Fold this protein.
Amino acid sequence: MTGTEKSMYIGGRWLPAVSGKTRRIFNPFNGQVVAEVAEGDRDDAKKAVNAARQAFDSGVWSDLPAAERGVLLYRLAEKIAEQSEELARLETLDTGKTLEESRWDMSDIAGIFRYYAGLADKDGGELIDSPIPHSESRVVREPVGVCGQISPWNYPLLQAAWKLAPALAAGCTVVIKPSEITPLTTLKITELAAGLNFPDGVINTVLGPGHSVGAELAEHPLVDLISFTGGIETGKTIMRAASGNVKKIALELGGKNPHIIFADADLDAALEAVLNGVFFHAGQICSAGSRLMIEDRVHDRFVERLKSRMAAIRLGDGMESATQMGPLISAEHLAKVESYMRVAESDGARLELGGTRPEAPELKDGFFFLPTLLTGCQGDMRIVREEVFGPVITVETFSDEDEVVELANATIYGLAAGFWTRDADRMHRVARRLRFGTVWINDFNVYFTQAPWGGYKQSGLGRELGRHGLEEYTEVKHVFHNH
Ligand code: NAD
């Protein structure tokens, strides 16, 4: 990297941490240091909030015609597209995910900026029918103001793009904080944006731990909205912190997502979707279909086929094209996933495959865990109720539709669910009854920029992507004019 080396971007300038501290960033494949970045704390976050506040209040961004904001966002999309291979390699170095997955992320990200660039000037407000004679009522959307944005480590740049693009399109100014362990691609697109004449203070990127930098963004009285993606417990802490000045809050939290296979399904296609639904990024996906529910009549056959396919998944360096699954993000996270095997055992689940770190010597320096299959699971087991965030599938069986819908809904999560059937009536019935923000019929883990994404229940608050994602960054104003 160039200007970003050990710096944060605040008020249009690259600055080292006030404390002078730095942090080393590791490659999860081999534990080697790939970069050293600035390690901010509350003072850096405060500086960034002040810069964002000043930029917002000056109107230098929010008063621009929305179409002009769109032009800059479009240029940023083009830069991202030009640099997508470098960005993808950086993401793989930082997260361990396969290069193929990182390339998908990058093409999505350029598209997200293009989408919101185009949407920026499409909402001209509306005239509503006023009951008062000789008057006019207009309803307009205005930018919320200064937005604190906190993203996780599993999709570092994708999650940052879900937040940055709509906020900037709406006319907000932002302070974004990537996860402290995966900051490299967010720094890189900040660098791309810095070369594009966004006014100073519109985009600010701060680095550092959640408990200091993130907490400061959540608490700061000059921040109008906090958008957070991460775990449920962190989300609750942020809600409490945000209550100080009644900030708007957008939360994308965890998931434990049912993937239901009815016996009449296209089982070949369902099998592919089950594999794709979990083993992306070694299962470290909020929408992983890690809770598999199979109708009893086809259970044994399906499990046998799944097991043999899972056993063939090739683990390795995400940079190698033959690799199908990379490592987990860190030694700490590996230990957490591993500890769930003891939970599964005491729950009484049956270990069909995996359950340990691999023995291959070439994987010994990385944070690898084998694809793991647990059968004989029940809805009340901890291994079924909690988000493991690793390459682990639990299997439950059911015998009828009512039973499986009730079981699937009996969770604190409500991010996504999917089911497979050939029965058209059942498609409508089950989709309506599942209490999740996204429901996939005869597919799994399909998401795109145009469709809203977010959780029911404790999986979140608000929506990202699509029109809804832009609306999150706006306030609604009613202007009444008595002639
Ligand atoms: P995390 O909650 O540990 O951290 C997420 C971010 O919050 C990081 O940037 C971290 O520094 C920051 N943070 C931590 N403590 C904070 C605090 N007290 N105040 C403010 N910020 C704080 O989550 P993670 O481990 O990085 O990510 C994994 C979780 O994210 C999983 O639960 C996953 O399901 C969820 N996730 C959800 C979605 C979604 O779309 N719903 C997408 C990706 C990840």
The chain has two domains: 8-253+459-479, 258-441. The longest strand covers residues 135-143. The chain is about 40% helix and 20% strand.
